[in-house]
Write a structure and sequence with these properties.
This protein has 193 residues and is α/β, with parallel strands linked by helices. It is built from 8 helices and 7 strands; from the N terminus they run E-H-H-H-E-H-E-H-E-E-E-H-H-E-H. It has a 3-stranded antiparallel sheet. A two-stranded parallel sheet has the order 1-2. Strands 3-7 form a two-stranded parallel ribbon. A hairpin with a 5-residue loop joins strand 4 and strand 5. The protein starts with a strand and ends with a helix. It binds adenosine monophosphate.
């Protein structure tokens, strides 16, 4: 299954300087949520592409109740359904430390962290040897605070909707990476075709 990340799609629009990118840029930099109208249109055209036929993992969508309702309607129209909704539960303070310190290799995308995952040789990527690294503009403490506030006010309210369907599973995101990975794999393995 491919990963469909609305954040990645929006960052691509910003880099391309498209109309959507121009509208989204300031909102993303401030840690707010881009309009439902833009997101729903973007997602509808993405999940009807052929590479989504075998199934897909939505990352960062839906983030509001109207987006969740639009997703239900979209999937019903395509004759598809959600198998699982996974809530990765992490304390706000831990999340802020994780996000504010993370960066990636500009060449191969390998992930690093200022405190938790430094390259073996500082300044060189362990995987490809690249010397250039990238940090997301919104991965700073101030913006993370706004992103978390948006999560609690606008995204957490979608949880009861999915809890009622019995498809919502919670994974303890405070656990070690290996444990989180094993929990996610077990949940995916449990999905019936
Ligand atoms: P992410 O890469 O998922 O952390 O998303 C980065 C930013 O893109 C968010 O802080 C929002 O500004 C915007 N964004 C991504 N997905 C959505 C969405 N489903 N609805 C609204 N805004 C979104």
């Amino acid at each position: 299954m491919i990963q469909v990340s609305t954040g990645d799609m929006l960052r691509a629009e910003v880099s391309a300087g498209s109309g959507i990118g121009l509208q989204a840029n300031a909102v993303m930099a401030a840690g707010g949520l881009v309009s439902d109208d833009i997101l729903v249109r973007m997602l509808a055209s993405r999940i009807t592409r052929p590479d989504c036929l075998p199934g897909f993992i939505l990352d960062g969508f839906p983030r509001t109740v109207p987006q969740a309702d639009a997703l239900d309607a979209m999937l019903a129209g395509l004759g598809k359904h959600l198998d699982l909704v996974i809530e990765l539960a992490v304390d706000d303070a831990a999340l802020t430390d994780r996000i504010a310190g993370r960066y990636t290799c500009s060449n191969c995308g390998e992930g690093y962290h200022d405190n938790f995952q430094m390259p073996l040789k500082l300044g060189a990527c362990d995987r490809c040897g690249g010397a250039a690294f990238t940090r997301r503009a919104d991965d700073n403490r101030e913006t993370v605070g706004a992103r978390l506030a948006a999560y609690h006010a606008q995204t957490a309210p979608i949880l009861p909707h999915y809890r009622a369907t019995g498809k919502l599973k919670q994974v303890d995101g405070m656990a070690d990476i290996d444990v989180v990975t094993a929990s996610l794999v077990a949940l995916l393995d449990g999905v019936q075709d």
